[in-house]
Each structure stands twice: as C-alpha cells, then as structure tokens.
Amino acid sequence: MIITYQNGNYFKIQSGDFALLIDPENQRSYRGTRIILNTLKPALAEAPDAKEKDAPVWFDHQGEYEVQGVRICGWSAGYDPKDKAEHTAYRIMFDDMKIVVLGYLTKELGAEIVSELTGADIAIVPAGGKPYLSESAVAKLVRQLEPGIVIPSLMKDPKAFMKELGKSDAKPEDKLVIKKKDIKEKAMEVVWLRA
Description:
The chain is mainly beta. It has a single domain, classed as Metallo-beta-lactamase, Chain A (4-Layer Sandwich). It is 13% helix and 38% strand. The strands form three sheets. Strands 5, 7, 8, 9, 10, 11, 12 and 15 form an eight-stranded mixed β-sheet that branches. The chain has a six-stranded mixed β-sheet with strand order 6-4-3-2-1-14, with no helix packed on it. Strand 2 (10-15) and strand 3 form a beta hairpin. Helix 2 (135-145) crosses helix 3. The two termini are 18 Å apart.
C-alpha cells in the first residue's frame, strides 16, 4: 500500500491498480480511481458523473459499504454550522489493513464511535488545531484509538501535535509505503507526509 498526501485532508491510498481518494479538492485526479471518500458534505469537489464508464464510487455520508472487497463504515461526526457541513469519520478495511479517517473534525467523538475506530493500523487525524479540534484533543483521541501509525493532516507543521502526543522524531516524507506486517500494533508512530 502507498499513501501520498496532496494537501488539506486530501490523500491518495493505492494498492496495485486500485486507488482510493480521501477529500479530493478537484476532479483532476479522478481518473483511475475506484473510490472517493469525503469527510465533508457538501464535499470540496464535485461528484463524478456516475453514468461515465469506470466512474469512481462516491461516498459523503455515514453507512456501511463494500466496493470490490474494500469495506467502509462511516459515522456522523456532527454538523458544524461554521462551515455548514456534515462531518463523517470513516473506518476502511483495505489491503488487509484497518484505516481510520477523521477528516475535518471539529467536535469530540462519542464513546460509541471511538470504540468502533479503536485498534486501527493507520489513523489519519487533523493535527493543525483551529478551526478543527485542538492538538491536545486530537492527541487524547489518538491515545484512545491506539493506532499503529498516525498520519497528521490539516496542518502546516505537526510539531505542536507531536509534542502533545509525546513524539518528536518524525521527519517529513514524500509517501508511506507499508505492508500489514510492518505495522507495530498500538505503537502510535507518527508519519509526517509532505504535500
């Protein structure tokens, strides 16, 4: 699996020729993509035309789904009147790994949702503070989730977040290339991906 960071909360997760996008900001990258997850509704980009051949499957709300062996569960993370958007947190089972995506989280998650997201292999979390959850609140949530790898998003520099998490050794990387066997359970290793 290869994970690359584009900007904001925009990630591409790829395994072989199967690609999944998270919160894309435009339609340029849709070609060859099978799934598009949006943690905001309305989304930042327009949905693809579902009538087009090989159009990606578009998700922007809670529920349980399966597309070509990729299992997705989404939970409402609340409506924020400031950005006039419904927020969704996702758990993805892809390439034998459990990936949690918290997106543009502005409110703390309820205990029931946290229990569904606990024990992920990889967690993508908002780490830049305002207007999203504070770095300390996200660090607390990460300690509850106990993922193997933490990927910060929505930040210019994750050092304040890493300090809150008690981690200071992450250096910026262009991409994460990972296999399930490489992940240490509950290690909360921070992988800082640059756009």
